[in-house]
Amino acid sequence: MNKNTVRLGVAFFSLIGLSLLSSTFYTVGEDQQALVVRLGAPTGAVSQPGLKTKMPMLDTVIYYDRRLQILTPRSEQVILGDQKRIEVETYTHFRIINPLRFYQSVRTVDQAGTQLSQLVSSSLRRELGQVMLPALLSKERPKIVDRIQKEVTEKARSLGIEVTEVRFHRADLPLETSQAIYDRMKSEREREAKELRAQGFEWAQQIQASADRERAIILSEAQRQSNITRGEADAQANQIFAAAFGKDPKFYKLYRSLQTYRTSLADSAPTLVLSPDAEFLRQFKTGPAESGTGGNAGNGSGKH
Questions:
Q1: What is the CATH topology of the domain spanning 69-173?
Q2: Which of 2, 35, 167, 230 is the most core-located residue (most Cβ within 10 A)?
Q3: Does 166 have pLDDT greater than 70?
């Protein structure tokens, strides 16, 4: 056996030794937890970080994240207790707390997400199927969500998972339902607007008719009162005229002539064609006749 063969043998066994040594040790990080599986059967979980040992060639180490993880399944339609449909989108925070049970139940994180999504969906449908839509818009909503979270948390423990939070990311009516509700609300508001306009027009007609009636009554009463007042004034004027005529007939005749001149000549053209001997011009030619007390009064009035 020469030296080269010895060197090759030493190198070969060194590589085997190093390989066995490297497969004997493994490390667990601060954010990790490990499960040691020997020939397909789990032997134990490791949660403390650091350098660990295992059986080389026989043991396999599976690492799981010990931090919080988020699950955001697709939105789904749920039928409420009042038979209304809503689109619900949830999110769930969870962490793996028992790697051994987790491996025995679901093995992978993807499978765990599938199982957890089904748990959330079934609990969501069961709980929302008992409530009405107005309850989701009131102070009852946090209580409903807490009941869903409590049920999911209890069922997820059997999977080695701790659920810390289940919340609604979105809970809306489907687009077609929202549009139908909007159209119905729009038509309802238009109908109410038409009814209010019709009612307002009817009230306007009633107010207008009442105002016209009151106006006619007021005008009629005013016309009647004015006729009474005018008649009383005319009667007093006639009494005054009669008293004046009885006291001085000539002065009264002169006064009436002056009134006739004022009335006739006030709106006349600058030129007025009359016969020289017309009675209308007699006062301009001769003036008022003189007579006793009445003549003095007449003269005084004529001068005025």
A1: Tetrahydropterin Synthase; Chain A (3.30.479)
A2: 35
A3: yes
